[in-house]
From TrEMBL:
It comes from Sodaliphilus pleomorphus. GO terms for cellular component: plasma membrane. PANTHER family: SULFITE EXPORTER TAUE_SAFE, TRANSMEMBRANE PROTEIN YFCA. It is found in: Cell membrane. It is a multi-pass membrane protein. This is Probable membrane transporter protein. The chain crosses the membrane at residues 26-47, 68-87, 93-110, 122-143, 185-205, 217-234.
Length: 236
C-alpha cells in the first residue's frame, strides 16, 4: 500500500508541478481505494498543501504576489464556506457544470479566442469561484489555473503563483475540516507521507518547465485541461 501511494504521489507531483493541476485527481481515487472517501479528502488536502507549498518555495522569486493577493481575498472565505457545505451539495451536477465551463474555456484558449482581461476583476471573480468549488468539491486546480493563465505569465511564474494561492486555500480547508472533526493525527501523517512523494515530483517538473516556451506551454496546459475535464465529467 505504501509503495503504491509513494509512486502515485510522485506521479501526481510531477503532473501538478508541470501544468499546475491534476495531482488531486490522481490521488483521490487511489487514496479512496485504501481508506474510503471520508478519509481520502482530508488526506489529499494535506498532501496537496505540502505539494503546493514546496512549488511556491522552489520558485518564490517568480511569484506574482499582488495578483495572488487579489485572488485570495475572496478565495479564502469562499473556500471555508464551501468546506462547510461539503456534505449537502449535489456534487455530480456541480462537477459537470464546472467541467463544461473548463472545456469551453480550454478550447477557446487553444484557438486563441479566449483573452480574459488581466487585472483585479478577473482575479477577484476567479478567486471567489475557485474557493467555492474547492471547498464544495475538493476540485480547484483546473479552475485556478484557468484564472492564472489569463495573466500570460512565464511557465515558472504561472506554476509558483498558482501554487501559492492553492497553498493558502488548502490551509483553510484543513482548518475547516479540523473544526468539523474530519481531521486527525492519523490523517495528517498519511497526508504528510504522500506529500513528501509529491514534493519530489515537483522538483522534477520545475526543472523541466524552465526551458518551456510560454505560448506553446499555455497551449499544452489548455489541452491537458480539456482531457482532465472530460475525464472528470465522465466520472461524475
Amino acid at each position: 500500500m505504501y509503495l503504491t501511494l509513494t509512486m502515485v504521489g510522485l506521479i501526481a507531483g510531477t503532473l501538478s508541478g508541470s501544468v499546475g493541476f491534476g495531482g488531486g485527481m490522481i490521488l483521490l481515487p487511489v487514496i479512496t481505494y485504501f481508506y474510503g472517501v471520508e478519509i481520502a479528502v482530508p488526506v489529499s488536502t494535506i498532501a496537496q498543501m505540502m505539494s503546493n507549498l514546496s512549488r511556491a518555495a522552489m520558485g518564490w522569486r517568480a511569484i506574482e504576489w499582488k495578483q495572488v493577493a487579489w485572488f485570495l481575498l475572496p478565495a479564502l472565505p469562499f473556500t471555508a464556506l464551501g468546506a462547510f457545505g461539503f456534505s449537502i451539495v449535489d456534487k455530480t451536477v456541480m462537477t459537470r457544470v464546472l467541467c463544461a465551463f473548463l472545456i469551453a474555456f480550454s478550447i477557446m484558449k487553444v484557438r486563441g479566442k479566449m483573452h480574459l482581461p488581466k487585472g483585479r476583476k478577473t482575479m477577484l471573480a476567479g478567486g471567489a469561484l475557485t474557493g467555492l468549488f474547492n471547498g464544495l468539491l475538493g476540485i480547484s486546480g483546473p479552475l485556478s489555473s484557468a484564472v492564472f493563465l489569463s495573466l500570460e505569465l512565464s511557465p515558472v511564474s504561472y506554476i509558483v503563483s498558482e501554487a501559492t494561492a492553492a497553498t493558502a486555500m488548502h490551509i483553510v480547508k484543513a482548518v475547516t475540516y479540523g473544526k468539523c472533526d474530519l481531521m486527525s493525527w492519523h490523517i495528517f501523517i498519511n497526508g504528510f507521507f504522500i506529500g513528501c512523494a509529491m514534493m519530489a515530483g515537483n522538483f522534477i517538473a520545475l526543472k523541466l518547465i524552465k526551458r518551456a516556451h510560454k505560448k506553446s506551454y499555455q497551449r499544452v496546459v489548455a489541452l491537458v485541461m480539456i482531457a482532465v475535464s472530460l475525464w472528470l465529467f465522465i466520472q461524475a
